[in-house]
Amino acid sequence: QALEQEIEHLDGILYIDHLESQEKLFEIIQEEEE
């Protein structure tokens, strides 16, 4: 899968291009370490 993903990058295809909807994306917010 990793190799396929890298080959797709060379073809200009991004992971998000395979999503049915961008509504399924969510942001992960990391807490800062003190």
TrEMBL record:
InterPro entries from the UniProt entry: Peptide_deformylase_sf (IPR036821)
Name this polypeptide is given: Peptide deformylase
Record organism: marine sediment metagenome
